[in-house]
Design a protein that fits this description.
The protein has two helices and four strands. It is of the alpha+beta class. α1 packs across α2. The protein is globular.
Length: 97
Amino acid sequence: MQEDHQTLISGSMGGLVEWVHVADSEALAQRCAADFLFDLKEVSDPSVALSGGRIAPAFYQALVAKDAQVGALKNCHYFWADERCVPPDSPESNYLA
């Protein structure tokens, strides 16, 4: 059974909002990565909080692949984000992802 995924896309760093339906989690990761890189061009000194979850690995892989052509990620400041209060070495921690 194929899931119907949807995501909320906010254009131009908080501009118009668009609901987008995609076929699967891979398509969702690809679309979010493309939109993220597009919006990142609008920020002069970007900071990014990296989190986990089931879509995160696919999103991060898509982001790195797409950025190979753009090079926008090298100018970002990165921070770990984890809403769960677990030690960094816990299997539930995003730090291990």
